[in-house]
Design goal:
Layout: E1 3-8, E2 11-16, H1 24-36, E3 54-57, E4 63-64, H2 70-73, E5 79-83, E6 99-103, H3 110-117, E7 121-125, H4 127-145, H5 170-181, E8 185-188, H6 191-205, H7 214-225, E9 229-230, E10 233-235, H8 244-254, E11 259-262, E12 266-269, H9 270-276, H10 288-293, H11 297-327, H12 350-353, H13 355-377, E13 385-387, E14 392-394, H14 402-430, H15 432-435, H16 452-468, H17 490-520, H18 529-539, H19 552-563, H20 566-582
Helix pairs in contact: 3-6, 3-11, 5-8, 6-7, 6-11, 11-13, 11-14, 11-17, 11-20, 13-14, 14-16, 14-17, 16-17, 17-19, 18-20
Length: 609
């Protein structure tokens, strides 16, 4: 069955086509239907039948006639774009001024890197970084001129380190390195993650310890700023000597080989994509191929996204747990230093009473991992390292990914606990013997099943996480004829950490839906102001559950609220206000306090600072 990728607003939508005799107009409407699905305001479209739009090919920008048949003007897997759409809040091709982040190899943060991945900024080098790059390259050029034998510059790689390469073949040596090492498999990284990977590699090269030429580095920056992104398969790295396979794929596209993607062209031959943006393929100088691929940037860029999303969901998990506590009529006395002094209920289940302790260690874990990731982001990870000020190169082991690999395994184990305890709270919400609410949070039980299987979904995700939390970094397999005889397996650590975080977000989305549904049965009672605002936010996206309906879109919509941090944006200011009023020594920007009304008292291991 032919498939087409359609660009609508900032989203790429895959539209299958069973009948190629359908019109281009049909393809456009099918894309619009997918675009507005699950959007609380229908994406700004009032009546889809009244919408007018134009369709053009991404490659070549040829405008298509809406009455043409698909088989006459498109090929399978073509990319097209919808534009000039009327009756929409957002108009297409809106140009805006994009700010720059200046890279120096020392000050980039995980937050910056994620924002670069989203396309919120372009990049440039600081003058100091440019000077260091030039000085580093001058030393390498001297080494080549003097015919010195230095690993990776005038020799082969790995097991072939003892093989000296003639000067006349040094360019071919670097090109062969990229071609042979581009052996990854699996799905390609998304454009956002490829942007992060490219930006991070540029940042490391900007430190001036790699020997890259300023000309080549500028070419990489131009490709980033134009969103010319190489096809990078997600699998193939063992995390030492660096992320060789994915970084080779990244560099191969810059060399004009393999595939590339850009918003203008879609997927096409790399040479064509570069030409379409007025860019030239890079021409490698001695050591530059090695400089492009020796490093932990695949592990670290994915790890940066994982830790940023983990931090966001951990903040919101406190708010969701507070809402569940209200629905289950739990006591806040467990969070007071004089617990249960005037309370009829002796104690709640651990899933409510011990939230500060369980959530607290997750916050501490995230803080620990984030520190390591931010250090790795600004670390030189090449081999050999070039020290221009000392006039020497040193072969070391900074390319080994053990630091981020271990940290990301730890992150997965830590953040998983948010889903583990959340799933148990969902059980309490759905179980009438524990909640004093209708079974599975729905009227006419039996005719309606309510949240019965939503809870099963949460349980399935938690169980899957238990397997994903097995540390990948405890494994090592010798590679490169026993030259690289200990590796980190950090690529898998990063990818599975991201999967764990996503599962945590989804489980908490189900809990938030269930807690809001529980509130429906407690009206006209009202909860605290911030929690009522969270309820209103959810209800602006998902209607109350009156009778059974298709539930997956509801879960996906609330998951998007959490990913976009909208729950935190609503309730966060109240939490910060409580912290300032009741815990004056607290830091205004620190993670959340658990109870929202009344505010909790400080006690050991509760995240209040």
């Amino acid at each position: 069955m032919p498939r087409f990728t359609v660009h609508v607003r900032n989203e790429w939508l895959t539209v299958p086509c069973k009948d190629a005799t359908c019109s281009i107009k049909w393809l456009g409407f099918e894309a619009l239907k997918r675009y507005i699905k699950n959007k609380p305001d229908n994406g700004g479209i009032q009546h889809i039948k009244d919408v007018h739009f134009g369709v053009k090919r991404c490659q070549g920008f040829g405008l298509l006639d809406n009455d043409d048949t698909i088989e006459d003007v498109l090929e399978d897997n073509d990319f097209v774009e919808l534009g000039n759409i009327t009756n929409m809040v957002y108009m297409f091709s809106v140009c805006r001024e994009i700010d720059y982040i200046s890279l120096d190899g020392n000050s980039l943060t995980s937050t910056d890197l994620v924002n670069l991945g989203k396309g919120l900024f372009k990049i440039k080098l600081t003058p100091e970084a440019e000077q260091k790059v030039v000085q580093s390259r001058e030393l390498l050029d001297t080494i080549v001129k003097e015919n010195k034998v230095v690993y990776g510059i005038t020799t082969g790689f790995g097991k072939f380190a003892q093989t000296v390469i003639p000067v006349s073949k040094l360019k071919e040596l670097q090109e062969n390195l990229l071609r042979s090492h581009s052996s990854g498999l699996g799905s390609p990284l998304s454009p956002e993650r490829t942007r992060m990977l490219l930006a991070l590699r540029i940042n490391v090269l900007a430190k001036g310890h790699s020997g890259i030429s300023l000309e080549t580095l500028h070419s990489m920056i131009q490709a980033f700023n134009a969103s010319c992104l190489s096809y990078v398969p997600e699998k193939g790295t063992v995390g030492a000597s660096g992320d060789l396979a994915p970084l080779s794929h990244l560099a191969l596209g810059l060399m004009g080989e393999g595939k590339m993607w850009s918003p203008k062209s879609g997927w096409a031959d790399a040479k064509y994509v570069l030409e379409a943006h007025g860019l030239k393929p890079i021409s490698l100088k001695p050591k530059e191929g090695l400089a492009l691929i020796n490093g932990t940037q695949m592990i670290t860029s994915l790890g940066a996204e994982a830790v940023e999303r983990a931090e966001a969901i951990a903040q919101q998990a406190d708010i969701i747990a507070a809402l569940t506590l209200e629905v289950l009529k739990g006591t806040t006395k467990a969070f007071d230093s004089e617990s249960h002094r005037f309370c009829d209920r002796v104690q709640d289940a651990y899933t409510m009473r011990c939230c500060p302790q369980v959530h607290g260690i997750v916050n501490d874990t995230i803080e620990f991992v984030k520190k390591i990731i931010n250090t790795e982001i600004n670390s030189a990870t090449d081999n050999p390292m070039v020290f221009a000020e000392r006039g020497e190169t040193i072969s070391g082991g900074n390319f080994h990914g053990e630091y981020p690999a271990k940290a990301l395994d730890y992150l997965a184990i830590g953040v998983h606990e948010l889903a583990s305890i959340s799933e148990r709270r969902i059980e309490r919400l759905c179980n009438p013997s524990l909640s004093e609410l209708p079974a599975f949070l729905v009227n006419e039980g039996g005719l309606n099943s309510g949240f019965m299987i939503a809870h099963c979904t949460a349980a399935a995700l938690v169980s899957e996480n238990k397997v994903l939390c097995h540390p990948s970094s405890i494994d090592s397999l010798s590679t490169s004829a026993a030259t690289e005889d200990h590796v980190s397996m950090g690529g898998w650590a990063a990818r599975k950490a991201l999967r764990v975080v996503e599962h945590v977000e989804q489980v908490l989305a189900i809990e938030l839906l269930a807690a809001c549904q529980g509130i429906e049965f407690l009206r006209p009672l009202r909860t605290t102001t911030p929690l009522e605002k969270v309820y209103d936010l959810v209800r602006a996206t998902v209607k109350p559950w009156i009778k059974d309906r298709f539930m997956a879109p509801d879960i996906e919509a609330v998951h998007r609220l959490l990913v976009d941090q909208k729950v935190w944006n609503i309730a966060g200011p109240y939490i910060e206000k409580y912290c300032m009023e009741y815990i004056p020594e607290s830091r205004p920007s620190s993670p959340t306090a658990f109870a929202l009304d009344p505010p909790p008292s400080p006690r050991k291991r509760v995240r209040l600072e």
